[in-house]
Amino acid sequence: MKKILGLSVAALMVMGLVGGGTWAYFSDTETSTNNVFSAGTIDLSLNGANSDVTVFTVGNMAPGATGNGNVSLRNIGSLPANLTVIVGTVASAESTGYQGTAASGTTTTLVDTNLTGNDDDWIGYTITFTSGSNENAQVIVTDYDSTTYTLTFTPAVTAAVATDTYNLHTEYEWDSTYTSARTEGELDDHLDISIWLDTNNDAVFDTGTDIVLESDGTFDATSLSSAPLSFYSGKTWANCLSLASAAEATLRVSYDFADSLDATQNVAQGDSVTADFEFTLKNQ
Q: For the chain, percent helix, then strand, then coil, each to nearest 5?
């Protein structure tokens, strides 16, 4: 009888536990505070500053002239980023000498009261008429009177000079193919350049690591190449180099006013050319 009663009590205890009794357990609570999310930075410096730089200001070039320029590119931000290089429109300007407007004249003279210089200063110069009855005519100055501001020229033009516009220039400053609509020079076709990224900044092209920006908009790490500056106009080299935070590379540009040993370069005499470079870092 006692044995049966003991079993019954045990059964009731189990039923009580299953039927909704409470459990005891250990616990420990900690708190995470002051959580902060902050954006990283990408910041490109040129030659150590966040401002525009000028790499070349070269004048009085002759065939055979060569030179080099460079600009350091450093990612001073906290994130790695890819570099994109863009060459804007290459603008080649024709040298046109003095541009003026006649006040009066004849078929062999031109008076311009804004013209400066001493007697005989302009002898041998070319007058190219850019508007009026004599548009596109070219004549040679034989005399200049600084007191009356009068240029005398030969041969005679077909109509007396009135308020014609004109250019006063040496022979080389305007090509023989001149028309009044022409404004473009040819120096950019005769100036060869090479552009490359020096990844370890040692001024020596290292095959396999340094990057050549080709004139067709591609880039590679094989060998240096060059092409006329005009070929680079409007080209973009997207994501051509990855720069880690604090990493630096040097963009190097070499130019060669190639000496062709013939007269074809005469069309570039007196001309000028400008080109802008743009650099962008993106973390993609």
A: 10, 35, 55
Which H or E element spans position 8?
A: helix 2-18
What pLDDT band is residue 73 in, cutting at 50, 70 and 90?
A: very high
Q: According to CATH, what is the number of the domain 46-93+185-282?
A: 2.60.40
Q: Would you call 45 exposed, middle or buried from its count of C-beta atoms within 10 A (0-12, 13-18, 19+)? A: middle
Could you read off the pLDDT of 131-167 as tens digits, one per residue? 999 998 999 999 999 999 999 999 999 999 999 999 8
Residue 185 has pLDDT above 90, yes or no: no
- Report the predicted TM-score, pTM, of the whole model to 2 decimal places: 0.68
The answer to whether the beta carbons of residues 58 and 148 sit under 8 Å apart is no
What residue segments make up the domains of the chain, in order of their start? 46-93+185-282, 98-173
Rounded Cα gap, residues 21 and 13, in angstroms: 10
The pLDDT value recorded for residue 222 is 93
Residue 135: other Cβ atoms inside 10 A: 14
| Three-state secondary-structure class, residue 72 | strand
- Contact, 53 vs 71, CB < 8 A? yes
Q: Which two tokens stand for residue 235?
A: 């080209």
**Sorting pLDDT into bands at 50, 70 and 90, what band is 38?**
low
Distance CA 123, CA 119 (A): 9
Query: SS3 of 246, please?
Result: coil
| Contact call for residues 163 and 114 (beta carbons, < 8 A) | no
What would the two tokens of residue 95 be? 């040298």
- Smallest Cα–Cα separation from 187: which of 278, 93, 68, 57? 93
- Which alpha helices (H) appear in 51-210, and where do they start and end? 187-190
